[in-house]
Amino acid sequence: MSEASAILALAHRDFIKLLRDRQRMVADFAFPLIFIGILGTSLQAGFGDRAGGLNLLDYVFTGVLAQTVWQSSALGLISLLADREQDFSQEIFVSPISRYSFILGKILGESLVALPQALGIIAFGFILQIHIGPDQLARMALAMLVIALFGGAFGVIVLANLSSQRAANQIFPFVMLPQFFLAGIFNPIQNLPLPLDILSHLAPMRYAVDLIRDAYYGSTSPVVLSSATTNLLIIGALFVVFMVAGTFLFVRAERNR
Amino acid sequence: MIRVEDLVKRYRKAETNAVDGISFQVKAGEFFVLLGPNGAGKTTTISILTTTLSPTSGGATIDGSDIIREASAVRRKVGIIFQRPSLDQNLTAEENVRFHAVLYGIFPYAPTYALMARGYRAKVEELARLLGIARDIHKPVKTFSGGMRRKLEIMRSLLHDPKVLFLDEPTAGLDVPTRRTLWEHLTEVRRTSGTTIFLTTHYLEEAEEADRICIIDKGKVVSFGTPDDIKRDLVEEYVLVDATDRSALRDELARLGYATSGGAPFKVQLDGHSVHSMLRSIETPLSVVKTHTPSLEDAYLEIVSRTGE
After folding, report:
1. Residues in A 175-194 with any Cβ partner in B closer than 8 A
2. pLDDT over 90 for what percent of chain A?
3. pLDDT of residue A219
4. What is the C-alpha radius of gyration for chain B, rounded to an integer number of angstroms?
5. Shortest distance, CA B304 to any CA of chain A (angstroms)
6. How many domains does chain B have?
7. Nearest CB to A91 within list B11, B76, B86
8. CB contact residues (below 8 A), chain B span 124-143, against chain A
9. Which of A107, A254, B80, B118 is the most buried (most CB within 10 A)?
10. Closest chain B residue to A13, measured at CA
C-alpha cells in the first residue's frame, strides 16, 4: 500500500514540476513543431504527388508524435543521472521504498510529462488541417500512453549503462538518431535492404511508431507494418525486460561506484 | 548506535582508497562529528552508512541493522541532510514535506494538501509554526532564504523519527549569521528529540561542542575522542629557551627534570607545568624564550598538513 502511495507521489511530483516550469514546456514543444511544420509540410509540397496517394504530412505527423512521446519519457528517466546529486531526487535514493517502485513511479511521472506534449502536437496537427476523427483520437490516446511507458522503460536500460549526464549527452545522438530513420519517422521502411531491415527490427522506437500509425491509419493501411497485437506483445515484453534488468543494473552501478 | 568496522572504499578506477580502513563507534544520543579537510572521505563514509554506496570491504551496523544486508531497515532508521540542497525549488515547502512523508510510509498519498490525512496536516501546521513560516508554507521553496531551506530540510528529515540524523556539511555555502541560527536550531532539535547526530564538517569550531570527534584525513582516522581528549592528544605545548651559556642551561634543565630534545634553542616540553613556574625555576640567564601553545585549530591544521606530506 505504501509502495503504491509512493509510486503515485513520485509520478505526481514530475507532473507538478513540469506544470511550474514554463520554459521547459515551451522548449519541449518547439522541436516537434519544427519537424512537422517545416519538414512535413515541405515533403508533402515537394513529393506529395509522387507518394502514391500517401499524405506525407500525415506520415511525418504520426511519426513525430510517437517519437516525441517515446523520447521525452526516455530522456526524463535519463535525467536521473543529473538529478541524483541535486533536488529531491537525493531524498528518493535514500528513502526506504523499493528501487522498483522508485523506477516505476519515475516512468509513470515522465509519461505524465510526455503526454501534454503530445496534446500540443495534436493541437498543432489540427491547425495544419490534418484530419483526426474522434475514434482515431481515442485509439491514439491509448497508444500514446503505452508508448510513453515504453519510452520510460527504454530510458531505464540506457540509464543503467551510463555513469554521468555527460556520458548520456555524448551517447544520446547515437542511441536516438539512427532510430529516427530505422523506425521510419520521416522515411518509409517497408522495403529496406536486409542489414537495415534487421537493425530496424532491433530499434525499439519502431514498435512505438508503428503502434501510433496503426491507431491513426487503421490496421489495413499499407503504411502499418505489424498488427497492434504484435506490437503490443513486443512492447510489453521489452517493457518488462528493460524495467527489471535496467533497475537491477542501475541500482548495482549506483552502489558500486 | 553506529558501529563501523574496518571500512574500506576504493572507487572504481581509483588508485587509492577514499576510505582506508576506518573503525569507530557512536553511542545513542551522541553528537558525533566526523572532521576532516576536503577529500578526506567524509561524504564517502556517510554515503556508505546511508546505504547509497557499497563498501569495498569492512562493514557497519546502525541500531543493529547491517548496512549491506538490511539496507531497507537502515534507510528507515536514518535521516539525511545532504551537502547539496535536496528540496525541489518549484514545489512548495508543504509539497516537499508531503513527498517525504509518503516515501517513508508515514501517510498515504493524496494529490492536494486538503485531501491529506488530518494527522499530516496537524504535523505540517506544527512544523510551519516552529519554523515561523506559517504564511509561506504553501509558497515555492525558491522564495525561501538559504538558511530557511536548510531548516526546512532538517525538520523534514525528522518527520519519520530517525534514530540517527546524518548531516553532510550542512553549513557549507551559508553566511555566518545563517550558520549561527542554523546551529542554534540544530542544538534545539537535539535537545528536544534526543536523536543521535552524525555531522561531517571541515570547520573545526563546529566540532567543539561535540560529544566526540573523529578526525579523518586521506581516508584514515587521525584522532578520536572528546574535544578535550583530542586537544590533549594533538596539542603539543612547549617552550623554546636559549642562553649565552648553553651548557649551563642544558645542565640546569636536566637537573630540574625537564625533558629537552635536540640542540639549542632547547625545546622544553611543559607536560602540564605552567610556563611561569618553569621559567621561575631556571636561574641561568636566558637570551631567548618562545612559547608554543597552539589552539585546537592550529593542532588540527598541523595534523592535516602533516599527513599531507
Report:
1. none
2. 46
3. 84
4. 25
5. 27
6. 2
7. B86
8. 140
9. A107
10. B99
Please give the backbone phi and psi of residue A220, each rounded to the nearest 5 degrees, phi first: -90, -10
Asked whether the beta carbons of B90 and B142 are under 8 A apart, the reply is yes
- Same domain (yes/no): B193, B285: no
Residue B85 shares a structural domain with residue B177: yes
Question: What is the model's pLDDT at position A172?
Answer: 82
Q: Is the confidence at residue A247, as pLDDT, over 60?
A: yes
Question: Is the CB of B84 less than 8 angstroms away from the CB of A16?
Answer: no
Domain map of chain A by residue range? Answer: 2-255
Strands B238-242 and B288-292: antiparallel
Grid cell of A226 as nine digits: 505489424
Interface A:B, Cβ pairs < 8 A: 93
Looking at B210, B231, B252, which one is the last position of a domain? B231
Whether B59 and chain A come into contact, CB under 8 Å, resolves to no
Any idea what DSSP says for residue B285?
A: P
The predicted model scores a pTM of: 0.82
B84 contacts in chain A (CB < 8 Å): 85-86, 90
Contact yes or no for A141/A216 (Cβ under 8 A): no
The whole-angstrom distance between B184's CA and the closest CA on chain A is: 24
Is residue B105 less than 8 Å (CB to CB) from chain A?
yes
pLDDT digits (tens, 9 = 90+) for B216-230: 988 899 888 888 888
Cβ atoms of B248 and B222 closer than 8 Å: no
Both B214 and B246 in one domain: the answer is: no
Q: Which of B103, B106, B156 to mutate to test the interface with A (most CBs of A within 10 A)?
A: B103
In a domain, B305, yes or no: no
Task: Indicate the burial class of A243 (C-beta count within 10 angstroms; 0-12, 13-18, 19 or more).
Answer: buried
Cβ distance A63 to A125 under 8 Å? Answer: no
CA atoms within 13 A on the CB side of B176: 1
Q: What is the ipTM of this complex?
A: 0.81
Residues of B in contact with A87 (CB under 8 A): 85-89
Nearest to A88 by CA among B178, B72, B119, B93: B93
**Residue B225 shares a structural domain with residue B246:** no
